[in-house]
């Protein structure tokens, strides 16, 4: 399995992983994920 390249993305890989994990693990909407990340001080749009 090859390593995923995050070059060209706006956010750090850790933030992308957290957003994907929240979205899939808890079956949240994208708006819910955005709200949870903003509570942790991460501004995404």
Brief rundown of the structure:
The chain is mostly helical and 45 residues long.
Overview of the molecule:
This protein has 45 residues and is mainly α. The chain is 51% helix and 0% strand. The protein is globular, with a radius of gyration of 11 Å. The model has no long low-confidence stretch (mean pLDDT 90). The protein has helices at 13-25, 30-39. The N and C termini lie far apart (30 Å). The chain has two helices and no strands. 0% of the residues are buried. It has one domain (10-45).
Relative strand content: under 5%
| Amount of helix | 40-55%
Mean pLDDT across residues? 90
Low-confidence stretches: none
N- to C-terminal separation?
Answer: 30 Å
Name the structural class.
mainly alpha
Please provide the ordered H/E string of secondary-structure elements: HH
Structural features:
45 residues; mainly alpha; 2 helices; 0% strand
SSE topology:
Elements: H1 13-25, H2 30-39
């Amino acid at each position: 399995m090859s390593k995923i390249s995050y070059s060209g993305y706006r956010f750090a890989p850790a933030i992308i992983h957290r957003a994907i994990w929240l979205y899939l693990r808890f079956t949240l909407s994208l708006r819910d994920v955005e709200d949870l990340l903003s509570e942790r001080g991460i501004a995404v749009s």
